[in-house]
Structure formats: C-alpha cells, structure tokens
Design a protein that fits this description.
Layout: H1 3-20, E1 23-24, E2 33-34, H2 36-46, H3 49-64, H4 77-81, H5 85-89, H6 91-102, H7 109-134, H8 138-145, H9 150-175
Antiparallel strand pairs: 1-2
Protein name: Biotin transporter
Subcellular location: Cell membrane
Transmembrane segments: 54-73, 85-103, 110-130, 142-164
Length: 176
C-alpha cells in the first residue's frame, strides 16, 4: 500500500476522532449529538471504498484498544458493546457504501444517495444495538437514537458533499 493512501486513511480516522469530541449530551438518550457523521461521510466521499472502510476500521480499533477517540473521550470495548456501540461499529460499512456509490462519479445525485444509504446503515445498526442493550424496544430506540438526529445528519452529509468537492480536487492534484 502506498504511503499516501496510508496517510489519507490515518488522516480520516484522526478527523473523525477530533469530530467525536464536539459532542453535546442529550437528556433523553445515551447517544450524544456529535460531528462524527460528518467525518464518516467525508471519508466515504474522499476515499476509495476500501480505504474509506479501513479509515473507519482504524478509528474503531483505536477506541477498542483504549485510546479515547470516541465521543466525550470515551474508549474501550464497553463503549462498542454498549448503547452507542452500534452506531460506531456501523461506520466502516457506512463509509464503504457512501464511497462505493459516489467514488469517481460526478454530480450530486450519487453522493447524495450514497450519503442517505450510509445514514440508513448507521441508523439501522445503531438503533438495533441501542434497543437490544437497553431493552427499550425498537420504537423507543428510534425516538432516542435516530429520529432526533435525522435532520442534523442530513445537514452534515450535505455539508460534507460541498466540502468534499474542492478537497477531492486538491487531493487528486497531489497524487498526480
């Protein structure tokens, strides 16, 4: 693997780690509002599918081994197996799907659809684990971990699409 690819993978994992710390705890849910989704979407829009997947896998592994990269400087397997864990473990697959639907494509349609598919993956896996771990049931888990976040996550995805265009152009000029 080229050094440049490794740097981009590590950079996206680092960006998500930083964005995770911009967190607002919410009183009605164990899931805080963060900017992580922006980073996951950005990874999917900037990197190849495999590299996007790897960048988020690196992020998850860093947190799993105890480096406090998750929201509110949390870390460890307990976070990944807890109420928020499903959202986190969905990140590699979501980034992969976003990238697979938008990588090397122009226009807004494919990135937009890819982002919606990625968000659906995050919400599905996250809500399932939230419901299972807390015992609150699927409907309550939807209201606690998904529905309040949808408008903000769509806004984050739209912003990521806007930001990704010039960044991707700059990265492509670096690699030529």
């Amino acid at each position: 693997m080229k050094t440049q690819k490794l740097v981009f993978i590590a950079l996206m994992a680092a960006i998500v780690s930083v964005l995770a710390q911009i967190a607002i705890p919410l009183p009605f849910t164990p899931v805080p509002f963060t900017l992580q989704v922006f980073g996951v979407v950005l990874a999917g829009l900037l990197l190849s599918p495999a590299d996007a997947f790897l960048s988020m896998l690196v992020y998850i592994l860093l947190g799993a081994v105890g480096i406090p990269v998750f929201a509110q400087f949390e870390a460890g397997l307990a976070v990944l197996t807890g109420p928020k864990g499903g959202f986190l473990i969905s990140f590699p697959l979501a980034a992969y799907i976003i990238s697979a639907t938008s990588y090397k494509r122009t226009g807004w349609l494919f990135p937009g659809l890819g982002c919606l598919a990625g968000l659906a993956i995050i919400y599905t896996i996250g809500t399932l684990q939230l419901s299972t771990v807390t015992g609150m049931g699927m409907v309550k888990a939807l209201y606690a971990g998904t529905i309040p976040f949808i408008p903000f996550d769509i806004a984050k995805a739209a912003l990521a699409i806007i930001v990704a265009r010039p960044v991707k152009k700059a990265l492509l000029s670096l690699s030529s």
